[in-house]
Amino acid sequence: MGKSKGILDRFLKYYRSISIDKKFLAVAYIQIFIPIILIGVVSFRISSDLIFEKYIGYTSDVIKTARLRIVDKINELNLITQDVLYQSELYNVLEKAQRKIDYYDDVASFTNKLRKIILGHRDIQSIGIFTKDKKLCIVDNTSQKKGLDEIVPLAITFERLYRIASNGDGKPVWYVANIDGENENNPVVLIVRLINNPRTLKFQGILAIMVNTELFTKTFSELVAEKSQAISLIGQNTFVCTKGQLNKQEVMKLTDSIKNENGVVTYTSKESIVNVLPIKEVNWYIVTSIPVKVLFKDIDKLRIWLIILCFLSFMITSATALLLSMDFLKPISAIVEATKKVRSGEYTTINDLERKDELGLLIENFNSMVQKINHLINSIYKEQITRKEAEIKALQSQLNPHFLFNILESINWLAQLNGVSQISDVVIALSRLLEVNLKEEKFLPLEEELKYITSYISILKINFGEENLKLEIDADKKALKFRIPKLLIQPLVENSVFHGIRPKGRGKIFIGCYVFDEKLNIIVKDDGIGMNPEKLNKIRDGLADELEFDQEEKSYTRIGLLNVVKRLKLIYGSNAHFSIESVPNKGTTIKIEILVEAIEKVYEDNLEYL
Fold first, then answer.
1. In the chain, where are the structural domains located?
2. Which pTM does this prediction carry?
3. DSSP conformation letters of 18-62
C-alpha cells in the first residue's frame, strides 16, 4: 500500500510539473486512444474467437462425416472377408493342398469366384489365400497397380502376415505399411484374417485383401473444400493418405499423446491449428490442419485497419490539441510573465488580447489588481514604511541616552569607591558597548548581542559587586548565527538587573537561546523580587495594547519592555511572540519566540537598506 502511494505521489508530482500543452496532448490521447484500443482489442478478440469456433465446428463436422464413411467402408470390407470364408471351395482347396492332392480344378473354380468379388468391389485391389506352405492363389483387379503377388513374400513375409492375423483372434485385422523403397505417400493397406477349419477349428491358412487407398482420398476430396486446409488419415503410425501440406512430425507426436481420447481433440500452436479424431475400430486417426495465418487472414486485415485508424487519430488529435493548447497558452503565458514582473517589483498590466472567455476575465481582473497595487504602493505603503522606520529609530534613540546615563553612573561610583585602579577595565568594556551602540546596522548576529550583554554586566558588577551579580548564558550554535534587531535583549537584561535584582541586593540572570519547532526562542530569567499577579496583569495588558504606562508602571518597566514589544510587532508582526511570567520573591521570566523563516526573510528584505 505504501509503495503504491509513493508511486502515485511521484506521478502526481511529475504531472504537476509538466507544461499545459503536454497536459492537453495527454488528455486528448487518453480520450481518443483508450476507447479505440479497447474497442480494437475486444473486437479483435471476439472476431478471433468466433472464427476459431466456427472453424472448429466446421472441421469437427467434416472429420466426423469422414469417419462415418470410412467406418462404413471398413465394415463393408470386413463383411467381404466373411463372405470369402463362407466359400466351401476354400476349405476343399486348403485340405487338398495340405494332403498334396491334385487341386488344380478346384483352384480355378475358386479363383473365378474371387475375381467376381473383386470386379464387384472397386475398393479391393487384390485378394490372396496363403496356406501353411506360404502361397495358394492370388487374384488382382485389372488395374496396373501392384498386387499381393508383388508384395508377398518379397516385401511382407508370410511369418509377418501370420503375426498380424494372429492379433485378430479370427477377426479381420487392418494393417498399414510402407513397402521398402516405395514412396511413403503411397502405402499398402491390408485386411488380414486367419482361416480356421470350421469343423476342427485348426489353422489352415491366411486370407489377405489389399485395399485400394484411393477410396479414402475420394472421401476427403468430397468433404474438404478449403484449399489451404490439409487432411490426413493415419494408421499404425503411417500416413494412409494426405491432402494438402501439414507438419507430419508434429501430427505424429500429437496422435501418440491422445490415444485414449474419443472425440475431436484440438491442438493450437503458433503455426497451425490441428484437429484429431480417433477411429477406434481400426486404431486409426483422421487429422485436419490449417495454418493460423490463413485462418486469421481477415483478422490481420482488421488489425492493419486498426493501426491505420490509430495513426490517423494520433495525427488529428495532435494537431487539434496543439491548436487548442496554443490558444490557451498565449494568455496564460502573458499572465505568468506579468506575475513574474510583479514579484520582482514591476507592476505592469497585460495587453488586451480581445478575449471574452474565462481567461479574458482573468486578465481583466489581473490588470485591475495591478492598478490597485500601484495605487496602494504610491499612496499608502511607502507612507507606512516611512512611519515605521521613523518609529523604530525613535524607540532606539530612547534607549541610548538612558543606557549611557546608567554606564556613566557606574563609572562615577567606581571612581569614588576604588580610585583609578579599575578604570582601564571599565573603559574597555565601555568602548565595546559604545562600538555596538553606535553601529548603523539595524541587525546584528545573536552572538554579538550576547557579547554586548556580557560587557554590559561586567560594568554593572563594579556597582553590585562581583559576587552579587551573576550572568549565565546557554545558546545553541545554530541560534548564534541568526541576525536580530540590535539591542533587542539588552533592555530586558537591564530591567532584570535594576528592577528585579537591585532591590534584593544580589541575584543571577540566565539567558537561553535555542532553536526548536522552527522558532528562535530567547529566554531572559532572573531570581529577583518578582511581582504580584495584579501588577503582572497590568503590565501584560499594557504591553498587549501598547499603551503608555502610568507613573507606577513606568518606574518598574522603565522603557525597555514596551520598546521591545513594539519593535517585535513592527519588524516581525504576528511571526513573533512576547510573554512574561513572574512569581513574587522568586523572579521573572521573559520569553521571545520568532519564526526562523521570518527572521531570515526580514533580514533579506532589509539588506538593501542596511
1. 18-346, 347-396, 459-608
2. 0.47
3. S-HHHHHHHHHHHHHHHHHHHHHHHHHHHHHHHHHHHHHHHHHHH
Helices (H), 224-290: 248-257
CA 410 → CA 2, 404, 414, 431, 505, distances in Å? 68, 10, 6, 14, 16
Q: Taking the domain 18-346, which CATH number applies?
A: 3.30.450.20
In CATH terms, is domain 459-608 a member of 3.30.565.10?
Answer: yes
* CA angle (229 as vertex; 225, 235 as ends), nearest 5: 105
CB 246 within 8 A of CB 272: yes
Amino acid at 95: E
**Tens digits of residue pLDDT in 544-560:** 776 554 444 444 445 67
Residues 603 and 1: their CA atoms lie apart, in Å, by: 44
CA separation for the pair 577, 573 (Å, rounded): 9
What type of residue sits at position 384?
Answer: Q
- Residues facing residue 432 across a β-bridge: none
pLDDT, tens digit (0-9, with 9 covering 90-100), for 34-52: 777 777 777 767 777 777 7
Sheet of 469-475: strand order equals 469-475, 507-516, 519-526, 587-595, 576-583
Interatomic CA distance for residues 290 and 296, integer angstroms: 10
| C-alpha cell read off for 93 | 482347396
